[in-house]
Known about the structure:
The complex is a heterodimer. Chain A has helices at 2-22, 26-46, 50-75, 90-111, 127-135, 139-166. Chain A is mainly α. Chain A has two domains: 1-80, NADH-ubiquinone/plastoquinone oxidoreductase chain 6, subunit NuoJ (Four Helix Bundle (Hemerythrin (Met), subunit A)), CATH 1.20.120.1200; 129-167. Chain B is mainly alpha-helical. Chain B has a single domain (4-94), classed as Helix Hairpins. Chain B contains three helices and no strands. In chain B, helix 1 (4-24) runs antiparallel to helix 2 (28-53) and helix 2 runs antiparallel to helix 3. The longest helix of chain B has 31 residues, at 57-87. The chains are: A mainly alpha, B mainly alpha.
Amino acid sequence: xxxxxxxxxxxxxxxxxxxxxxxxxxxxxxxxxxxxxxxxxxxxxxxxxxxxxxxxxxxxxxxxxxxxxxxxxxxxxxxxxxxxxxxxxxxxxxxxxxxxxxxxxxxxxxxxxxxxxxxxxxxxxxxxxxxxxxxxxxxxxxxxxxxxxxxxxxxxxxxxxxxxxxx
Amino acid sequence: xxxxxxxxxxxxxxxxxxxxxxxxxxxxxxxxxxxxxxxxxxxxxxxxxxxxxxxxxxxxxxxxxxxxxxxxxxxxxxxxxxxxxxxxxxxxxxxxxxxx
Lengths: 167, 100
């Protein structure tokens, strides 16, 4: 049963990923990326991570995709790339190198002793466990994250202020 | 129980698709989306390893990665808008100058 859910979700995730790269229209790319993110959220549930399932849907499928769609439509970037490539050999080379990377990654991924866990510990993945880890072992990174978000907010505001002053 | 390497293989395939997307596509927004998908592939592998080792700290790392990714998208898209204002393009081949 679990394997069937995994197989279907993995197929949906890969379909979303491939279609995101292949689709000519950037709006379609963003929507296929949303499909991919949602499939990964389901995989998080299979991996007993309900907190990350919620975070994935709220932050990625909610905020980030909406931001992408907003910018794509604002810039009018949805039309496909016109004109010839300035580096003709770059795309085939990139494709070959990417497939080589995939082969190397798969050899490493399938070579290790990575079986399933013997059993699920009591309370594993519960939000209380994550909160306890966040406020004890990972307290310093948690506080640094607050500074990071503040810096990001200030950075975005400064970028837009300079544009307004210039034009 | 699903073997961990199924998840690792899925993450590897998604990461490779993201790399190919970054290298092949010329629309800078699609390139950026491919980077986000690579982050997600790495997140999936981290959660799979956390499950295999029954260690909750793996999920905490993914939480931090998601926070950093959200900040990165906000700043990155603001930068893209600033570039578009001055150069009127979203094609990476046209962005050949460092000065604005």
